[in-house]
Design brief:
The chain is mainly alpha-helical. It contains 7 helices and 4 strands. The strands form 2 sheets. It has a two-stranded antiparallel ribbon. Strands 3-4 form a two-stranded antiparallel sheet. A hairpin with a 5-residue loop joins β1 and β2. It is elongated. It starts with about 30 loop residues before the first helix and ends with a strand.
Length: about 290
């Protein structure tokens, strides 16, 4: 599993902001500072990629973390790429929980990136560090469906078309990184097991089997997804039965402690499972 991605122009530095929507222009670095930070981050990321290739996964994680430390915290695409790469390292180390956490952070960064800004800035840069094509030119407008259209009075149609092409390329990049992060999180959830994680893995694989991912996944990934969709449901049912049985055992132990002073025990009661709902009812034994 190769984590390396040719990430787009810009990245992230400084502390995380508690509320991503609160990020303002004051949080942004100057173009010169940003370029310096990106140069540092790119160098660390390249070194981390080489460490991954040589199976030095723990060292790669540390190096990716250093790359993250130089990425401006408003450049969500770069954050997503690095977090997804870190998740790939944790998968190699069989650290399923850490892989789930890092892949989830990658997906959350992409969610923030695709969230429409509350205050559009004409001609500004978006979270990916590229010019926002929906605002950079009045010749290109976005309708309610998110489709960029040329205005009838466009003065520079060629520039508008270039911005639309850039917008489409970025959408493809985001979709690709999201698919990688989902694949990595789904695998980690499946490996970790447990009712909740297996159910989460199934949901991730179901998402990957649906548009816009279904037609663009590599054939090897599509095969993994299709296999998981067949094999996960019985695993989920088995895990559910096991966890429900363990829960009932603990409840029985607790109940015996409460009933003992009254000369009773849970054996005085009967537990009946409702096969339709999977729930239990309690009644007295005759």
């Amino acid at each position: 599993m190769e984590p390396s991605e040719n990430a787009a122009p810009v990245r992230r530095k400084s502390e995380e902001v508690a509320d991503p929507d609160a990020r303002s222009g004051e949080d942004r670095f100057s173009p010169e500072e940003e370029a310096t930070l990106l140069s540092e981050s790119h160098a660390e990321k390249a070194a981390a990629n080489e460490l991954f290739k040589s199976a030095q996964y723990s060292q790669a994680i540390s190096t990716y973390d250093r790359a993250l430390a130089s990425v401006p915290n408003y450049l969500e695409y770069e954050i997503a790429v690095l977090k997804s790469n870190i998740a790939a390292c944790h998968l190699k180390l069989s650290d399923w929980k850490a892989a789930i956490d890092e892949a989830t952070k990658s997906i959350e960064a992409l969610d923030r990136l695709e969230k429409p800004p509350s205050t559009p800035i004409n001609g500004g840069t978006n979270e990916s560090g590229t010019q926002d094509c929906s605002n950079a030119s009045d010749a290109a407008k976005s309708n309610d469906d998110g489709v960029i259209e040329l205005a009838e009075d466009a003065e520079d149609e060629a520039e508008a078309l270039r911005q639309i092409e850039k917008h489409d390329r970025r959408k493809d990049d985001i979709k690709r990184i999201r698919a990688k992060a989902l694949m990595r999180r789904a695998r980690a959830r499946s490996e970790q097991g447990g009712w909740g994680d297996l159910q989460g893995a199934l949901e991730d694989y179901q998402l990957l089997s649906s548009p816009p991912f279904a037609t663009s996944l590599p054939s090897s990934d599509a095969k993994i997804v299709n296999t998981a969709l067949r094999t996960l449901p019985p695993r989920i049912n088995a895990a559910k039965e096991k966890e429900m049985g363990e829960m009932m055992g603990k409840l029985k132990e607790l109940g015996n402690g409460i009933l003992k002073p009254f000369g009773l025990s849970t054996d005085s009661f009967k537990f009946e499972k409702d096969e339709k709902t999977g729930g239990y009812s309690i009644g007295m034994n005759n």
